[in-house]
Amino acid sequence: RRGASFRWISAAALLLVGAAVVWWMTRPPAIGHITADANCVGINRVLDWKTIRAGRRLTLERGVLEIETDRGVRIVLEGPCDCTFQTAQRVHMSSGRLFADVGEAGRGFTVAVSGGEIVDFGTQFGVDVQDAAIEVHVFEGRVNAALEGNGVDNPSEVRAGSAVAIDTNAKAITAIDLKHKFAQQATPYVEHFSKYSSPLAG
User: Fold this and answer.
1) How high is the mean pLDDT of the chain?
2) Three-state secondary-structure class, residue 17
3) Taking phi first (over 0 means left), then psi (-120 to 50 degrees means alpha), and beta for anything else, what does residue 140 get?
4) Beta bridge partners of 34
5) What is the pTM of this model?
């Protein structure tokens, strides 16, 4: 009986090891990594949590998270936030604020939202998603904002110093005032979080 139990335990252990190896080898590819965080609440800090892999969903109740993709795009997320990294060049924002600093290697970086998308052409911009109300603020360079159904061949161009509101219910894109309301780095906001619920860009 002892021999049979040992063989059963050994077989189970081999199966577990084999499953672990298969899981490790078939993981989605790494597309970036977390470089800094400030007072983040809600993020799942498990093994290898700082690695961003394709398909990873990030949710923040509060705090600021800074990420760099393998294409050199620097992204700052501000909670409350819910987003999914589909690829290194495409992030789907369900809610929250995102600031992106995009260099030449990251041209074409896209923020997808419900009912539309924002495509970057080497710039600094912010996206604020609150239900059907979406704002795009461009600080440097330019982006294209497009609604689903209008097609990517007919986007609205938004240049530096400008901002637009995307109303996905009314299928409309309108000009609004540019606002510097996005956290642009994680580290400087640690002290700020002890006083305020939401950091503002300096």
Assistant:
1) 80
2) helix
3) beta
4) 67
5) 0.78
